[in-house]
Known about the structure:
The chain is 50% helix and 18% strand. It is α+β, with helices and mostly antiparallel strands.
Amino acid sequence: MKLADRSLETLSSPPNVDRTGTQSLTKAIRLMRAIAARPQFGWRLSDLSAACGMDKGTVHRMLSCMVEERLVRQRASDRHYLPGPFMFELGLALPDAMQFQRAAETCVNAFAKRMGGLALLLYRSGNEYVCSQRAGSLQLAGMMVYPGTRRPLFSAAGGVAILQTLPEEEVRCVLAENVAGEIGRNGTVRLASLQKMFDRSAEHGWGVNLGDVVPGVHAFGIKITNEAGEAFASLSLVGTAELYPAARLEQVHQELQIAADALSADARKFNM
């Protein structure tokens, strides 16, 4: 499957017209998703407006309401917009998910310590993944994925591992959106590298990145499934080429699978 062709599907598809009565809600969710993607740095009004494809006046009015409702806060030092406490409070309504998160923390930390690299627990969030946990003390330049980070599914080995479980038509739609967004943000410069990771992962049947995206950084991903058999998350392992050379691929796969199976068992226990 050629990633470069996926964006053409988005460009040639008819525009998605909001149904009457849902347009404002759709815009608000779009803003919340963007704000949640940058929980530490935050957004300037103008940048948020451009990223969401909405005019500044509309964004400002909606943000004012969100700040009042505590969904969003505005940092006094630089006036950047950040996630507010109400976002966290809403999550408290999902006690099973919180129990899974606590159980997974023990597993992910133990896995990172045993393997000597960085371990990431990634949840699927629509066409993106969101990092839930990061464990391990390995220092990797440019490794900017932390809890709360959101990225397109196709941009990481863990995301590709999730994509591999989806029906072909759904994969086509996700990739169309992912590629169009990638081109909008970065042009086509990374598509060849992402294609290499995508093809390598398809060959192995799980997420495998042997320095395909960032030279010298190897990353791997295995799906985590719930009771319905859906890949709602993945476990990733990231490290240097010296730590995880191609010769260790089978061992890395076995270790990842053991940890992912344990996490899948917890997911079923806590009704994820």
